[in-house]
Specification:
- With 100 residues, the protein is of the alpha+beta class.
- The chain has one helix at residues 82-99, and strands spanning 9-12, 24-35, 38-44, 51-55, 59-61.
Length: 100
Amino acid sequence: MRQFSVGEVVTWIPDLLLRSESRGDYRIVGRMPDRDGDHIYRIKNPLEAYERVVKASLLLKSQGYLPEENKNEGPREASITLPSLLDVEKRGSSRARSAH
């Protein structure tokens, strides 16, 4: 029987090979087929752009809280782009020329 359910918040503690990775709270987003006798889960932190696949033995139940991901919100760096600023400048300069 599986220890964790989809939607549950867990704490991931990386194994020795991944000690440089940041540990923290993640949400279980899916279950994977067992591998070598271990339950495998897909986990996601809303602050990361990707999911991780981890063994159940590297997860602990968490009392932590994770905000829900806003699927409608795009990446923050894409909110203002250089081409859109250039278009505004071009429109402004064409208006200035037509005023002369």
